[in-house]
């Protein structure tokens, strides 16, 4: 084995980029239809992940607010708790 141990081939990189592109929302995929660069795709992926984090934080705050207004022994609160497990 030569110095290539641990290296990824260009074909493997292209396959991983295609898989990553397929995970992006439809609107991003349309923009990338013209085979954008890997660095642009990675930047867009990072932006998408950041937006997902913001969405999760927002939903967590909203859920926390909803739970604080509920009676902890109510059937609705129990359903929400069971869904979060």
Q: How are the SSEs ordered, and which strands pair?
A:
Blueprint (H helix, E strand, L loop, with lengths): L9 H14 L2 H6 L6 H32 L5 H10 L1
Family: Belongs to the bHLH protein family.
Protein name: BHLH domain-containing protein
Organism: Setaria viridis (Green bristlegrass)
Give short descriptive properties of this protein.
85 residues; mainly alpha; protein dimerization activity; BHLH domain-containing protein; transcription
Dominant shape: elongated
Total domain count: 1
How large, in whole angstroms, is the Cα Rg? 21 Å
Low-confidence stretches: none
Structural class: mainly alpha
What's the overall average pLDDT, rounded?
83
Total beta strand runs: 0
Q: How big a fraction of the residues is strand?
A: under 5%
User: What is the CA–CA distance across the termini?
Assistant: 48 Å
Total of helices: 4
Helix content: over 70%
Order of helices and strands, N to C? HHHH
The largest β sheet comes out as: none
